Amino acid sequence: MKRKILYLAAAVGIIIQFCACSKPAPTPVGVLLNRAADKAAEGDWPYADGMAKEVLKQQKHNAAALMIRALACYNMDSRNEAVDHAIHAARVEPELFLAHYIQGMLLSRNGKPELALKALKEARRLRPNDINTLILLAENSIAVRRYQEAAGYFKLLGKNPSYLRSAYLWNGLGVCHTYTNPSMALKFFRMAERYEPNNPVTTLNLAVLYDRYLKNPGNARQSYDRFTRLTMGRAEYDTLRRQVESRLRSLPVR
User: Fold this and answer.
1) DSSP 71
2) Is the per-residue pLDDT at 161 higher than 80?
3) Which pLDDT score is estimated for 253?
4) Given a cut of 90, is residue 87 above it in pLDDT?
5) How confident is the model at residue 254 (pLDDT cuts 50, 70, 90)?
6) 191, 187, 139, 184: which is closest to 165 by C-alpha?
7) Residue range 116-126: average pLDDT?
């Protein structure tokens, strides 16, 4: 009986060893990351997220996988989880520009401008001239009403020739000065209008400036009217157009 037990025990050992040896090796991390990146570029976020998860099973602090998971979660409407992964990636790789940029971008889109600014300033420390970082720094500074700081970022953006003649730059500078120097803001909005005459954002900015800050209802009405014409049939402006139409009804008519 003892010999049989020993024999069976030995057989079990052989089976275990055989199973262990025949188990397929995990897919290399580099291969998984490449697949995740390819699928992310195609917009297949569930697949990209799955590949990133497989990487994290092997390397739980892999910054690239964490960043892919952050973007995937955001695009699959798991925004809080997305931010968590982005924060983790930045902690793992504190000198990695992209980790801080993604963190700042996601915090900005989640409506947390103060936290976004902190992350974006780290991104700018690592890559001072990155255009997208400057844009987000400017926009989030406006969101927390740091207009002077925002104006500084817009001025840096203006050093890039592709933005110097854009309505975006001059509208941004106009917004920064609206609350402290409306006359200066008017000059900036006029510059925006000069470069893009039919830009609805510029037209609305002018209308609000005339209406609320320069107390010129006649010019405000003209700009509001023009905004409604420019945006007619454009669904993305429907909500704003309804608000403008409501304001027009309350403005005095000469």
Assistant:
1) H
2) yes
3) 75
4) yes
5) low
6) 191
7) 98
Rg (CA), the chain: 28
- Does the pLDDT at position 39 exceed 70? yes
Give, in order, the Cα–Cα distances in Å from 215 to each of 155, 157, 171, 219, 235.
28, 31, 20, 9, 30
* 104/90 Cα distance (integer angstroms): 10
Among residues 73, 75, 88, the alpha carbon closest in space to that of 96 is found at: 88
**b/e map 63-96, b = 16+ CB within 10 Å:** bbbbbbbbbbbbbeebbeebbbbbbbbbebbeeb
Asked if 72 contacts 45 with a C-beta cutoff of 8 angstroms, the reply is yes
Nearest to 106 by CA among 128, 85, 126, 134: 85
**CA separation (Å) from 212 to 72, 88, 147?**
42, 44, 18
Neighbour-count burial of 192, counting CB atoms closer than 10 A to its CB (0-12 exposed, 13-18 middle, 19+ buried):
buried
The pLDDT value recorded for residue 109 is: 95
Query: What's the pTM?
Result: 0.84
What single letter denotes the amino acid at residue 163?
A: Y
Angle at 242 (CA atoms; ends 238, 248), nearest 5 degrees: 140
Q: Is 148 left (phi over 0), alpha (psi -120 to 50) or beta?
A: alpha
The pLDDT, as a whole number, for residue 23 is 57
* Average pLDDT value over all residues in the chain: 90
Alpha carbons 160 and 8: distance in angstroms, whole number: 77
